[in-house]
Specification:
The complex is a heterodimer of chains A (470) and B (139). Chain A has 14 helices and 20 strands. Chain A is α+β, with helices and mostly antiparallel strands. Chain A has 4 domains: 21-107 and 147-153, no CATH class; 171-245, no CATH class; 249-342 and 394-469, no CATH class; 344-391. In chain A, strands 6-5-4-10-9-8-7 form a 7-stranded antiparallel sheet. In chain A, strands 13-12-11-17-16-15-14 form a 7-stranded antiparallel sheet. In chain A, helix 1 packs antiparallel against helix 2 (51-75). Chain A is globular and about 70 Å long. Helices cover 52% and strands 28% of the residues of chain B. By secondary structure, chain B is an alpha+beta fold. In chain B, strand 1 (57-60) and strand 2 (64-69) form a beta hairpin. Chain B contains 4 helices and 6 strands. In chain B, the strands form 2 sheets. Chain B has a 3-stranded antiparallel sheet. Chain B has a 3-stranded antiparallel sheet with strand order 4-5-6. Chain B has 2 domains: 2-53; 58-133, PH-domain like. Chain B has helices at 2-25, 27-55, 93-97, 119-132, and strands spanning 57-60, 64-69, 74-80, 86-90, 100-107, 110-118. The chains are: A alpha+beta (470), B alpha+beta (139). The interface between A and B is medium-sized, with 27 and 19 residues. Strand 18 of chain A pairs antiparallel with strand 3 (74-80) of chain B, so a sheet runs across the interface.
């Protein structure tokens, strides 16, 4: 065992506890978990009229939180030996996780403000397979230990000297990305709030006049209120985007992509290129008119769930998208245009669906509030426009090993994927389509994404499917 | 078995709809809705399973699994064998009553199944797929 082939002394061999900063970090974690009961207890204490009791409850809660943090730190150890990474934790139920060296695909890091204060990192050990259990978190690891761990595992150092490619998001682009980011999803909390208010109003049968004092009287008032709520949700979404994508940087170094991002909480993820199965170019509602898009990456066997880990680059110009993909994911390089589109006669089925969907509220308005007929016109016109845009957006292209599928649901999305790595491909026909010889082609790529092109000529769809199979 | 499955799914749904229709709407409108629900339920239980059975086709080739299914919308799905991560045989209480089982195979994108095979066939197909699906060098 001695001689030139001897294994270097392993400084990480002995089980070690996380950095003492973990006490504070774990305490904060348990505070977050206990936040609700703690607040309830304090409020109860205060409500009983005795301010002192609230303070006592609060202090007791704090002590519990600190003790929990201390206990978690004390009972957590990890070590790296020649076979595997071992992690033991837990006071009452001892939990041991063993991850063989070969199954560690990468080490991602997250650094929140607390970690930055103490100069430590949270290390997320990635294994293939995806899902929550594929990720092991080592909280409060010093930079030196992290680098030693990387070297011991044979991973490249975190900062590459001369990377093959590097792209950084400037602050101007960050702002534009945050402003144009919000999709219809921003309305969800607003609708939720409206629903909650409506529920209150409806359920409270004996309404006192004071309930209505806060609510506006006129239509204009309601519009203003809803507008303010949407505006607020928008601002929150913008702030979130800025926090997440500030300082976004993607580096291609050999066979890996390293993506770094975040303002308060700094994340660094390593994505092996072999896990990248496709790239999606998403032109959101607010971005398409300006010729902008965002790039998302479709992977299989990668546990990252956060929005950042799915983002290849937050904002590009549409016409630069192909070049950026070529730069970052050479396996998917190639032209994205021209695409074969859907046939002209497919326009009717494309328009039919949104119009049918718009017909429902239209009929409702016609029956219940005929005075609001302009709304019906707007709805139908909008539906027709959406159908036309969908028809125009549909397209496909097949190169040697690469398929490009473009479609629109609301936002226009282009998928570039490696044919060899497709998880599924298929063809679909409704009875109506069968009658007029149209069909849909669909593929499943990565762990999460399915793309379709609808209403192609049946013969074309079958031919495309045939090419995908060979 | 498809019929029983459809019955178990349709009966409570139809029951709820009919009860609501008669209870809440009442009168002629309620009766109409109830009748419609009954008709849909009958169609789902009598017609749909037969169509489903007739339309379901599967083939396990060396390099891919070919599934054709669908009652109204017909879908043909091809799963490359190299993408299959693992294969199971799934037996439910319902399928056991008929001596049937389903073969479920998983890719990174999710699961697909070949439902309602004879028990012995299911095991054989499962073994065949397991053999053909080599450990993928890339996921």
């Amino acid at each position: 065992m001695d001689g030139p082939a001897a294994v270097a002394p392993n400084p990480l061999g002995a089980p070690r506890r996380p950095h003492p900063a973990a006490i504070a970090i774990e305490a904060l974690r348990s505070l977050r978990e206990m936040a609700l009961p703690l607040v309830v207890a304090v409020v109860l204490g205060a409500g009983s009229g005795n301010g002192g009791r609230a303070v006592v409850y609060g202090l007791v809660g704090l002590v519990i939180v600190l003790v929990t943090g201390l206990a978690r730190w004390w009972t957590t150890t990890w070590s790296l030996d020649e076979h595997a990474l071992r992690h033991r934790s837990g006071l009452l139920s001892r939990d041991e996780r063993v991850i063989p060296r070969e199954r560690i695909s990468s080490l991602d890091t997250v650094q929140g403000p607390l970690q930055r204060l103490f100069g430590v990192l949270e290390l997320r050990v990635q294994t293939p397979g995806g899902g929550r259990s594929a990720e092991l978190a080592l909280r409060a690891v010093t930079r030196r230990d992290a680098e030693t761990l990387r070297r011991a595992l044979g991973h490249a150092a975190e900062r590459a000297e001369a990377p093959d490619a590097r792209l950084r998001l400037g602050s101007g682009a960050l702002l534009v990305s945050a402003l144009t980011g919000p999709q219809l999803g921003v309305l969800v909390p607003v609708i939720g709030a409206i629903g909650a208010v409506a529920q209150e109003v409806v359920s409270d049968v004996t309404l006192s006049p004071s309930t209505f004092d806060g609510l506006p009287d006129t239509v204009l008032g309601w519009v203003a209120l809803v507008g303010a709520a949407v505006g607020l949700a928008w601002l929150v979404s913008i702030a979130g985007a800025v926090l997440t994508f500030s300082g976004f940087e993607v580096v291609r170094d050999g066979e890996r992509l390293r993506i770094r991002s975040g303002l308060l909480s700094r994340r660094a993820a390593t994505l092996p290129l072999s896990r990248v199965q496709g790239v999606r170019i998403v032109e959101g509602l607010l971005r398409e008119p300006f010729g902008l898009a965002s790039l998302r990456v479709e992977t299989a066997g990668y546990a990252g769930q956060a929005a950042v880990t799915q983002t290849l680059f937050p904002l590009v110009r549409r016409r630069d998208a192909a070049a950026v993909v070529d730069l970052l994911v050479p396996a998917l390089a190639g032209p994205l245009e021209p695409l074969h589109g859907a046939p002209r006669r497919a326009l009717r089925p494309y328009v039919a669906v949104p119009v049918l969907v718009a017909a429902v509220p239209s009929v409702a308005i016609a029956v219940l509030a005929p005075a609001a007929w302009p709304a019906i016109v707007a709805l139908i016109a909008g539906a027709v426009a959406l159908g036309v845009l969908r028809h125009r957006a549909a397209g496909w292209r097949l190169d040697e090993d690469r398929i490009v599928l473009r479609s629109r649901r609301i936002a226009r999305t282009t998928l570039v994927a490696s044919v060899r790595r497709l998880q599924e491909h298929g063809i679909r026909q409704t009875p109506l389509q069968r009658r007029i010889a149209l069909a849909d082609v669909g593929v499943a790529v990565g762990s999460r994404h399915r793309a379709h092109v609808r209403h192609l000529e049946e013969a074309t769809a079958l031919r495309l499917l045939g090419c995908l199979r060979s | 078995m498809f019929t029983l499955e459809a019955l178990l799914a349709a009966a409570p749904a139809a029951g709820v709809v009919i009860a609501l229709a008669l209870g809440v709407l009442g009168g002629a409108a309620g009766a109409a809705v109830a009748l419609a629900a009954l008709a849909v339920a009958i169609a789902a239980v009598v017609v749909a399973p037969r169509v489903r059975l007739r339309r379901f086709r599967y083939e396990v080739r060396d390099d891919e699994i070919d599934l054709q299914r669908g009652i109204v919308v017909q879908t043909r799905t091809l799963v490359p064998m190299v993408r299959v991560q693992h294969v199971d045989v799934r037996r439910t209480v319902l399928s056991r009553m008929f001596g049937l089982a389903a073969v479920v195979f998983h890719t990174a994108a999710g699961a697909n199944d070949i439902p309602a095979l004879r028990d012995a066939d299911a095991a054989a197909i499962r073994d065949r797929i397991a053999d053909l699906a080599r450990t993928p060098e890339v996921l």
